[in-house]
Amino acid sequence: MTDILKGFRDPEVARRLVDEIHRIATEPCTLMEVCGTHTMAIAKNGLRGLMPDTIKLLSGPGCPVCVTANPDIDHAIEIARQPGVVLTTFGDMMKVPGSYSSLSREKAEGRDVRIVYSPLDSLAIAEREPDKHVVFLGVGFETTAPTVALTIREAARRSIPNWSALSLHKTVPGALEALVNDPEVRVTGFILPGHVSTIIGTAPYEFLATKYGVPGVVTGFEPVDVLLGVWMLVKQLAEGRAEIEIAYGRGVEASGNLAAITAIEQAFEPYDTEWRGIGVIPGTGLALRPEYAGFDARTRVPVTVPESREIKGCQCGDVLRGVVLPFDCKLFGKGCTPEHPIGPCMVSSEGSCAAYYRYTDYGKE
Amino acid sequence: MCLAIPARIVSEPNEIEMAEIDILGVKRRVSLMMTPDAKINDYVLVHAGFAIQVVDEEFAAESLEMMHRMGIKHADELAAELDDTDEPVEVPAP
């Protein structure tokens, strides 16, 4: 194993892995990646085309921007519309369409919406502009949630009066359980996310193996990493094992990052939240704990959110569940392109539709 | 979105655990709150302005070189992203 990891840049190693995958994947299986960066890596490197017919590679709900439900995006937009508010967020969120608008459209119409690299930058804006109320829109899985948790803690420590966070953060393991229970999907193995696992380790996934008999492999992001992850999965399936293994030991420890896990637990508590395409999944949202209510944009900037509506003809939700491939959507490449996206999966660079569009020719006009 | 980039710590952390890092020549201050054991010259994975994990130098160097060589999005785009935010700010000490 160590030898394979050392050679993760080596095309010869990649070929050996592909040969091995072909040799042992004799039974049909459906493997799902649940990380947008994996979706990109698989599409960009043409890994789907290297798989034997027995292996179906599906893209799951691994793009945090894409799984954010319309009512939540609408909520953020309403906050941006309030006088005296500066809405700060990551660049990925800007173009995501809500029911009626997007943050980039709001910005074009004069609202104060700013892209920041780090939530800490948002705090600095609040300190520099005391007459404004600065809201940080937090989107992302466990990789990102601790950065916002620690920013909330820092805001409290510095007693910053004009800063709050709108947390739309979500946690991954509960979504995997929802997918395992989805009769339309039938995942037989998970390519588990690399940097989410850097934070949470492997324990939160163990139920997949023990309760459902579905194996998972925490996988890195280089082409050989992904092939290694696939090989370890099909090897488990061939040997009749179901375990949670790590193919990305360079970036992940089984125990995760305790400081980060603690930060999440101190700032947030779980709540039931809606995922685009999947629906409400119990306990997978992260809301600010009551002791941080003074930093919760939900109470600091009260708004009335208009009734949301879904985008006509867009199958983003089904794509996120792995029920349909991006090519199967009637809008794919015909009206919905990265230049003129209709649904969120085409907006985000790591959305499944955008990845398929950029790196394959299928289905384009 | 959950991407993390290897970077080298090039300054001692200040009293609020902010330290300067170097990613392919781009300098930036990040928080070491999640990696309390990280020291100057260590390599760390950086996400959204925070170091999230200490990694070994060989891995960091290989990843950075690989990103460059394969034209994988992230190295160059990240550097651009760092310069492209509306508010590239230093977080002041309280």
The name of the CATH topology of the domain at 65-171 and 257-300 in chain A is: Rossmann fold
Q: Percent of residues of chain A in beta strands?
A: 15-25%
Task: Compute the average pLDDT of chain B.
Answer: 74
DSSP helical segment count of chain B: 2
CATH hierarchy: architecture of chain B: Roll
Question: Could you provide a short overview of the structure?
Answer:
Chain A has 365 residues and is α/β, with parallel strands linked by helices. Chain A has helices at 2-6, 11-24, 36-44, 64-67, 70-80, 103-108, 119-128, 145-157, 172-180, 194-200, 206-212, 223-238, 258-267, 297-300, 316-321, 344-347, 352-359; strands at residues 29-33, 55-59, 85-89, 113-115, 133-138, 163-167, 189-192, 216-218, 244-246, 268-275, 279-288. By secondary structure, chain B is of the alpha+beta class.
General description of the model:
- The complex is a heterodimer of chains A (365) and B (94).
- Chain A is built from 17 helices and eleven strands.
- Chain A is α/β, with parallel strands linked by helices and 365 residues long.
- Chain A has a domain at 65-171 and 257-300: HypD, alpha/beta domain 2 (Rossmann fold, 3-Layer(aba) Sandwich).
- Chain A has a five-stranded parallel beta sheet with strand order 2-1-7-8-9. A four-stranded parallel beta sheet of chain A has the order 4-3-5-6, with helices on both faces. Chain A has a two-stranded antiparallel sheet with strand order 10-11.
- In chain A, helix 2 runs parallel beside helix 12 (223-238), helix 3 runs parallel beside helix 17 and helix 8 (145-157) packs across helix 13.
- The longest helix of chain A is centred in the middle third of the chain and has 16 residues, at 223-238.
- The model of chain A is unreliable at 1-6 (pLDDT under 50).
- The longest helix of chain B has 14 residues, at 57-70.
- Chain B has two helices and five strands.
- Chain B has a five-stranded antiparallel beta sheet, with helices on both faces.
- Chains A and B meet through helix 3, helix 7, helix 8, helix 10 and helix 13 of A and strand 3, strand 5, helix 1 and helix 2 of B.
